[in-house]
Write a structure and sequence with these properties.
about 325 residues, alpha/beta, Arc Repressor Mutant, subunit A, D-Maltodextrin-Binding Protein, domain 2, seven-stranded mixed beta sheet, two-stranded antiparallel sheet, flat, transcription regulation
Length: about 325
Amino acid sequence: MSEAERQGRTGADASAPRGGLAHRVPDLGALELLLAVARLGSLGRAAQEVGVSQPAASSRIRSMERQLGVALVDRSPRGSRLTDAGALVTDWARRVVEAAEVFDAGAQALRDRRDSRLRVAASMTIAEYLLPGWLVALRAQRPDTAVSLQAGNSAVVADRLLAAEADLGFVEGLSVPPGLDSAVIAHDHLIVVAAPGHPWARRRRPVDAAELAATPLVLREEGSGTRQVLTAALGGLARPLIELSSTTAVKAAAVSGAGPAVLSELALGEELSARRLVSVPVEGVSLRRALRAVWPTGHRPTGPARDLLTLTRK
């Protein structure tokens, strides 16, 4: 039977998936099994690796094929190999599993565990877009290290460290808060964005500093690193239309058309690629900032905190 016939038969047997995303996307266990089949070339060895029986693994693969409407694995006495569609799905599955690992590392760090041995405080942009990946890498090095994460603006991070409620912090502001030592770990750019229907999204000339300062903007709250950088760049003249305490809330307000916003480029990849937001060119304004690791003066990070600091620089 040809590949096209196999896929056609599988598609004919399966009704079109309906409902929400959970009904259309296989569960993580099934995706991990498919990745194991691709790596090992054997359904039996893949089943053993993920800890299920071979019949259960076969059933899970067939269920996934019905759910997706395509054949994923060709089975023969010589082993199991991916179909062309299976190879493509495997590439997508690998990204989903990697993203789930990042999600799990971030979520686990948010839990306030009594046995925590590394307490991290991070400003919102770093906590949302950089720290989970660092925690995945730290887990590979120190699988027994429990991490707790406290997220807030840069001022909150400084307060946590000075109160001995965190071992290592990450901030985005222009300067290092008093009482803390620091190391620059990366640089970031802020971008002015607007909804596609906003006049700024269609203009041909850049927005200059005077116009940006005179325009009410959707902004992060006072004390956030993003707000500090913008206010300094505009000589203290940033005008808030709405003040919000999270990057996600600022993006949602801008997408709804409330007004232009200023956010880290780290936070805008999906919205810009989908054109839910449009980058607005700006001239005469420096919106570059340093991202810093911080710790109490005279208390250089040691142990897991030192390892995490090292990972941020790789």
